[in-house]
């Protein structure tokens, strides 16, 4: 038996010794220990686990808050960090609604009669995804943008038999590409990377050349990891009849950038974090996938559909489930089970609140402010903006000095100034990515420009 | 809670007051608005000069115009159509639907965590790295294994990670091998994950106890078998008492023992997978460690490994320097690679560690003790009224079947639906596949005796109804926001998005 | 009633032969076992089938089963109606619920299939009733 005093229970475990005694009597065993007789003695632990606790909430708050205070974050710095995780405005009511136990503490809506809230929300979320991407069918969510890209590539591979090459733009988020490499390493799929040109966009001539008969798909990201908005039409023209996958790692861009579904793309996957989800050191986020209607039966993950109940009332239910692991097991379209439902719910709330006007306004503000800072930095002597293509809310800056040193200087000014590119691409040590969203004020940007100017002067000395 | 409503009365009552909520797309009215941004504080440039018209979209046709009031009411009303663990017992077998403490939520929302960015340099996120390091230490102790990766974000993601590590290790040893052995009682993610790691699946038949016979295993393990994936305790809630023998048989042939640790709630603090000879296991932080299921996620699926598999862990790992500082280590030449961008579901990790600290050593053990006690109490009370296809001692969950009810042409689905009228979420049904008409009940340690009694009384009442008024059960539920759905219609002509 | 004029495979497909064309579907027993059919995946016209090899799949709400070709030959027609109305497999398995028409490449293959009476007996033993 545990060392807890007989008379005291843990606050999360209601049954006390009196309850336990009564229950043991019904079961017909003398002690709880006997219920574990099926575990052989030689594998049983003869001591308590060596872990801290039990802590009261007071102690937990103390310890965890002290830890959190050891981070330098957007809380006490002006942040210009992006690279696949963006700080956007989240309306206050979203988090309050997410904390409703009916959403927070329910599980996958296997039983539709008592899960209509979750099911209807997913159905609405799917609808938003379709409207934003210009494609026909969206699933209930995937883990994140990187794994969504993996799933998209595996989907595309299922569409054609015998072709094993996929082209990926080198300007897709490098960690997404790394994840894809992990996922496909045992499946005989080969990745062919196509680089960028001086405008920061995919090299369409190289793309055209790479599109041989053994290629089943091409994947590009827009805005890409360099911040540059790709030309979907040009990519479509260069890649013939193969399946085209658009990756959107900055979801708010869909408020102003042309939707991939209307420009020759068959699959759009991406990261929904930018829809107001806290950056939270990388997760939980929400991956999305939207496809043309003809591909829906090849999709991974859960799908919610509309139907009626026996009384003819409109109702929602998980559907086309025969694609999934719990039915098709080893032949399923994916192994995914648990997804990111609660984050998809947050995204649904965000999209509903912002709506037609708000999504546009957020995107326009990002675009305007980014170009404001970009022009401002262009004016600093020895700052180079290496890529000439149009950007959405992020761009690359080059100085004559190592990015890590420049960014260290900015940190002294309470600015999280960007992400060094050198950690992703060799030979780019003097470049870094700067992101701007609607949360950044003109004052912050002016301060940024001044601080960068000063940092460069300091490095020069 | 357990008032039984007659169908006629229920139908009338529902007609009057059934909760309903239209689609958010029906709440849209031109000119309404649910947000406000500060006015643009930089000089506005002509759009055409910064983004060519050909690269822009027109307004998002069909998107919403709803006020904040409208949005808040919509989602509040939607929420009322769900049942949840906050409202009562949710005995979904294999899912470990336990209480989700709110301190976990509060801690995860601490601004220093919530607003930290995944690509910040190590020196700016020492708090996060220390937290992850601490969680790994605690999981190492719970698993009895030397390293744990926290990158996987779900159970199935952890499975894929684990099997990929096995594959990489086998390749390194000269032969990736062809097969993964999986018992017929396994969760569907096991074969799916193994397939995505490039393996073929060989199914192992369970014996009359519902477990794997060492003899069956020994016969199946050849030089082409990479690993056995086994759920401990299995999906019947039965512990694989021969687990040590499994390990010996596999290891003798150079194969690995993978443990699906979804059911860790049954033995946390009682026994450790590492001591059982297990080489690699995942567990689900959203099960045993109380992070909320959120209607289907997010979760986290950390994977622990034995010494032999450590070199193959996903990169980066979190390491501690002599001086007590922490850093991300990318230099793992034999790593399977990265399983996801960034650092896993960090927010879920924060919640899980908060919970582990709240429980402490005694509390963690107490989880298993009371979860097993609760499940066995249900088993004792319902045995006889419901058929127990496998009579072996079970731990944290119990699997009945509809055999006794089938004579009245009432099936598991009907019993499950009728339970809703008594205010309970149904158990997992028709799983595991080795039980025809399975009802898989997992109460967890969160349930007080009186809730278990209410549940048992509801189940017993349903068993009586099956004999006396089978039609009442066959047509259930009668009191839910909607009744049984036409699922065939949904699948035949799928409507997957709102359309006017 | 199991139609007398067709032949049956152990995997519950029937083939009804007229001239050198065989019409293939699943039996009434099979459709009942499956429940509400929601989707049928069929091969393309022109593809070659081999006896006992996979010809497609059939899905109910919560199950998926493989279909096997009862005879070898070239697919000359597929039942397009099943795309929109898969329920025809339930309502009229031997009529409008047919799946593919095959130009038989070897009529002697029919000899290994069961007749109606034999199939009925087979179903009875298999289902254990």
User: What sequence of helices (H) and strands (E) makes up the elements of chain C?
Assistant: EEEHEEEEEHHEH
**Percent strand of chain B:** 5-15%
Question: Number of helix segments of chain C?
Answer: 4
Count the E strands of chain B: 12
CA distance, first residue to last residue of chain C:
17 Å
Domains counted in the coordinates of chain C: how many?
A: 1
Which tags fit this structure?
heterotrimer; B: 500 residues; alpha/beta; Aspartate Aminotransferase, domain 2; Aspartate Aminotransferase, domain 1; 2 domains; 7-stranded mixed β-sheet; 3-stranded antiparallel β-sheet; 36% helix; globular; C: 129 residues; alpha+beta; OB fold (Dihydrolipoamide Acetyltransferase, E2P); 6-stranded antiparallel β-sheet; 4 helices; 9 strands; 21% helix; 34% strand
What are the SSEs and their pairings?
The complex is a heterotrimer of chains A (461), B (500) and C (129).
Chain A: H1 17-27, H2 57-68, E1 78-79, H3 92-98, H4 101-104, H5 116-133, E2 137-138, H6 145-159, E3 165-169, H7 174-184, E4 190-194, H8 204-210, E5 215-221, H9 232-238, E6 243-248, E7 267-271, E8 287-291, E9 303-308, E10 314-319, H10 325-328, H11 341-378, E11 394-398, H12 403-412, E12 415-416, E13 419-420, E14 431-435, H13 442-460
Parallel strand pairs in A: 1-12, 3-4, 3-5, 5-6, 6-7
Antiparallel strand pairs in A: 2-8, 7-8, 9-10, 11-14, 13-14
Helix pairs in contact in A: 5-11, 6-7, 11-13, 12-13
Chain B: H1 7-17, H2 47-50, H3 68-79, H4 102-108, H5 111-114, H6 126-143, E1 147-149, H7 155-172, E2 179-183, H8 189-196, E3 200-204, H9 214-220, E4 225-231, H10 243-252, E5 256-260, E6 280-282, E7 303-305, E8 317-320, E9 326-329, H11 346-382, E10 398-401, H12 403-406, H13 412-421, E11 428-429, E12 438-441, H14 449-468, H15 470-474, H16 487-492
Parallel strand pairs in B: 2-3, 2-4, 4-5, 5-6
Antiparallel strand pairs in B: 1-7, 6-7, 8-9, 10-12, 11-12
Helix pairs in contact in B: 4-11, 6-11, 7-8, 11-14
Chain C: E1 7-8, E2 13-18, E3 21-26, H1 28-34, E4 37-41, E5 48-49, E6 54-60, E7 64-68, E8 73-78, H2 81-84, H3 88-91, E9 100-104, H4 116-127
Antiparallel strand pairs in C: 1-2, 2-3, 3-9, 4-6, 5-8, 6-7, 8-9
């Amino acid at each position: 038996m545990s060392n807890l005093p007989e008379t005291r229970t843990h606050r999360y475990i209601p049954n006390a010794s009196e309850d336990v005694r009564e229950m043991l009597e019904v079961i017909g065993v003398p002690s709880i220990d006997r219920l574990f007789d099926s575990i052989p003695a030689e594998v049983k632990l003869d001591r308590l686990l060596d872990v801290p606790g039990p802590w009261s909430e007071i102690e937990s708050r103390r310890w965890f808050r002290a830890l959190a205070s050891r981070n330098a974050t957007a809380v006490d710095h002006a942040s210009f960090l992006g690279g696949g995780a963006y700080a956007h405005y989240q309306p206050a009511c979203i988090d309050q609604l997410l904390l409703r136990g009916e959403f927070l503490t329910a599980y996958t809506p296997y039983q539709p009669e008592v899960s209509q809230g979750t099911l209807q929300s997913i159905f609405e979320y799917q609808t938003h995804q379709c409207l934003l991407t210009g494609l026909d069918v969206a699933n209930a969510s995937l883990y994140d943008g990187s794994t969504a890209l993996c799933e998209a590539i595996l989907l595309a591979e299922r569409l054609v038999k015998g072709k094993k090459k996929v082209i990926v733009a080198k300007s897709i988020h490098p960690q997404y590409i790394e994840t894809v490499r992990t996922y496909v390493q045992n499946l005989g799929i080969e990745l062919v990377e196509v680089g960028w040109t001086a405008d920061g966009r995919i090299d369409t001539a190289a793309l055209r050349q790479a599109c041989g008969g053994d290629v089943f798909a091409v994947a590009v990201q827009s805005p890409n990891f360099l911040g540059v908005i790709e030309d979907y039409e040009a990519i479509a023209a260069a890649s013939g009849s193969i399946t085209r996958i658009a990756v959107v790692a900055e979801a708010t861009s869909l408020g102003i950038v042309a939707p991939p579904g209307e420009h020759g793309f068959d699959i759009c996957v991406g990261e929904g974090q930018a829809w107001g989800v806290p950056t939270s050191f990388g997760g939980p986020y929400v991956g999305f996938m939207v496809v043309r209607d003809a591909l829906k039966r090849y999709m991974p993950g859960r799908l919610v559909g509309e139907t009626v109940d026996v009384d003819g009332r409109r109702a929602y239910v998980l559907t086309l489930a025969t694609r999934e692991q719990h039915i098709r097991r080893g032949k399923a379209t994916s192994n995914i089970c648990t997804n990111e439902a609660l984050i998809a719910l947050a995204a649904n709330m965000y999209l509903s609140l912002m709506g037609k006007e708000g999504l546009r306004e957020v995107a326009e503000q990002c675009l305007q402010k980014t170009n404001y800072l970009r022009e401002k930095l262009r004016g600093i002597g020895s700052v180079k903006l290496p890529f000439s293509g149009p950007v959405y809310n992020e761009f690359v800056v080059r100085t004559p000095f190592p990015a890590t040193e420049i960014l260290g200087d900015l940190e002294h000014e309470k600015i999280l100034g960007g992400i060094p590119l050198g950690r992703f691409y060799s030979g780019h040590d003097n470049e870094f990515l700067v992101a701007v969203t609607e949360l950044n004020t003109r004052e912050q940007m002016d301060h940024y420009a001044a601080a960068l100017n000063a940092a460069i002067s300091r490095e020069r000395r | 809670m357990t008032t039984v409503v007659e169908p006629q009365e229920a139908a009338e009552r529902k007609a009057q007051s059934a909760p309903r909520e239209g689609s958010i797309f029906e709440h849209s009215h031109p000119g309404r608005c649910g947000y406000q941004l500060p006015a643009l504080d930089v000089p506005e440039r002509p759009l055409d000069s910064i983004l060519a018209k050909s690269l822009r979209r027109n307004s998002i046709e069909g998107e919403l115009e709803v006020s904040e009031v409208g949005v808040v009411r919509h989602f509040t009303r939607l929420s009322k159509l769900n049942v949840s663990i906050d409202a009562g017992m949710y005995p979904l077998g294999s899912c470990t639907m336990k209480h989700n403490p709110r301190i976990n939520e509060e801690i995860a929302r601490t601004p220093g965590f919530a607003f930290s960015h995944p690509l910040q340099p190590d020196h700016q996120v020492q708090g996060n790295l220390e937290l992850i390091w601490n969680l790994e230490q605690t999981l190492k102790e719970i698993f009895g294994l030397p390293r744990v990766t926290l990158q996987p974000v779900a159970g199935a993601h952890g499975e894929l990670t684990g099997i990929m590590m096995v594959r990489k290790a086998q390749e390194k040893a000269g032969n990736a091998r062809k097969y993964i052995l999986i018992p017929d009682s396994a969760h569907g993610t096991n074969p799916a994950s193994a397939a995505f790691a490039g393996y073929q699946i060989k199914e192992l038949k369970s014996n009359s106890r519902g477990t794997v016979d060492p003899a069956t295993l020994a016969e199946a393990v050849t030089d082409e078998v990479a690993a056995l994936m086994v759920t401990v305790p299995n999906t019947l809630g039965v512990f694989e008492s021969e687990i040590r023998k499994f390990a010996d048989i596999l290891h003798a042939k150079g194969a690995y023992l993978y443990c699906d640790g979804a059911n860790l709630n049954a033995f946390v603090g009682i026994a450790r997978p590492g001591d059982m000879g297990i080489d690699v296991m995942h567990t689900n932080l959203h099960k045993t460690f109380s992070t909320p299921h959120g209607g289907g996620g997010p979760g986290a699926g950390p994977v622990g490994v034995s010494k032999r598999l450590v070199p193959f862990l996903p990169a980066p790992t979190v390491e501690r320097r002599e001086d007590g500082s922490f850093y991300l280590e990318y230099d793992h030449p034999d790593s399977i690679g990265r399983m996801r961008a960034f650092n896993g579901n960090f927010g879920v990790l924060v919640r899980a560690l908060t919970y582990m600290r709240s429980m402490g050593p005694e509390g963690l053990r107490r989880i298993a003790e009371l979860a097993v006690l609760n499940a066995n109490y249900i088993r004792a009370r319902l045995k006889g009224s419901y058929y127990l296809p496998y009579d072996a001692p079970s731990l944290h969950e119990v699997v009945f079947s509809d055999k006794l009810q089938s004579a009245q042409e009432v099936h598991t689905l009907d019993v499950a639906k009728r339970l809703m009228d008594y205010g309970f979420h149904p158990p997992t049904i028709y799983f595991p596949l080795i039980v025809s008409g399975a009802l898989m009940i997992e109460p967890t340690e969160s349930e007080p005796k009186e809730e278990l009694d209410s549940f048992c009384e509801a189940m017993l009442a349903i068993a009586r109804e099956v004999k006396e008024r089978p039609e009442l059960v066959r047509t259930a539920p009668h009191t839910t926001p909607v009744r049984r759905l036409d699922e065939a219609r949904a699948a035949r002509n799928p409507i997957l998005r709102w359309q006017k | 009633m199991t139609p007398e004029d067709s032949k049956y495979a152990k995997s519950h497909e029937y083939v009804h032969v007229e001239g050198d064309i065989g019409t293939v579907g699943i039996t009434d027993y099979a459709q009942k076992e499956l429940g509400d059919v929601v989707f049928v995946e069929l091969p393309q016209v022109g593809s070659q089938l081999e006896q006992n090899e996979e010809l497609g799949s059939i899905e109910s709400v919560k199950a998926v089963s493989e279909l096997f070709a009862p005879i070898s030959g070239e697919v000359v027609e597929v039942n397009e109606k099943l795309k929109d109305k898969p329920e025809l497999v339930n309502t009229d398995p031997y009529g409008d619920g047919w799946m593919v028409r095959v130009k038989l490449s070897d009529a002697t293959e029919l000899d290994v299939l069961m007749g109606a009476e034999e199939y009925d007996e087979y179903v009875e033993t298999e289902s254990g009733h």
